[in-house]
Amino acid sequence: MAARRRAETMEENRAKLIAAARRAFAQTGYAAASMDELTADAGLTRGALYHNFGDKRGLLAAVVNQIDAEMAERAHQAAAQARDEWEGLLIEGVAYIEMALDPEVQRIVLLDGPAVLGDPSQWPSQDNCLQVTKRTVERLIGQGIMKPLDAEAAARLLSAAALNAALWIAASEDPEKVLPKAVEAFRALATGLRQA
């Protein structure tokens, strides 16, 4: 019973720290976020942060993972409205690109994330998205909708195109102006993989 309660408390503390960090990183950015203020906001100590995440970088990784999972779910929900799986694949990619306009996504995932955590294509959350895209590509190839290419190669290129479009939008001086260009190019690239 005590072990279960301890595990629950640890999980609650992790959730509090992630929520506080998410607010702080969204408002001031990773570099300016104070660990003392962040832990005070969560009602915890720096020791709890170190125990659960190792350091501030580990906490950012947890926040990015949470937001990335939410982004994947939002993109998947958008794709579920499509009339067929091919259109769903395109809608999912476009939805991911459009999320680059969300200030929280922009700052935490697309700007601070790569600066602190390195290449986003190497993040565990991105690998999960890649595997989902690969399974969709395999089905579309099996149905003769997509060209008979290596499914992993096609999935990696589609994922990279969406990710890099989102990174471009987030880093641009005028994200609203860049968005339609990025979406148009993504759709054109993806359509090149479709059977004639």
From TrEMBL:
<dbReference type="GO" id="GO:0003700">
    <property type="term" value="F:DNA-binding transcription factor activity"/>
</dbReference>
<dbReference type="InterPro" id="IPR049484">
    <property type="entry name" value="Rv0078-like_C"/>
</dbReference>
<dbReference type="InterPro" id="IPR050109">
    <property type="entry name" value="HTH-type_TetR-like_transc_reg"/>
</dbReference>
<protein>
    <submittedName>
        <fullName>TetR family transcriptional regulator</fullName>
    </submittedName>
</protein>
<keyword id="KW-0238">DNA-binding</keyword>
<feature type="domain" description="HTH tetR-type">
    <location>
        <begin position="11"/>
        <end position="71"/>
    </location>
</feature>
<dbReference type="GO" id="GO:0000976">
    <property type="term" value="F:transcription cis-regulatory region binding"/>
</dbReference>
<dbReference type="InterPro" id="IPR009057">
    <property type="entry name" value="Homeodomain-like_sf"/>
</dbReference>
<dbReference type="InterPro" id="IPR001647">
    <property type="entry name" value="HTH_TetR"/>
</dbReference>
<dbReference type="Pfam" id="PF00440">
    <property type="entry name" value="TetR_N"/>
</dbReference>
<feature type="DNA-binding region" description="H-T-H motif">
    <location>
        <begin position="34"/>
        <end position="53"/>
    </location>
</feature>
<dbReference type="Pfam" id="PF21351">
    <property type="entry name" value="TetR_C_41"/>
</dbReference>
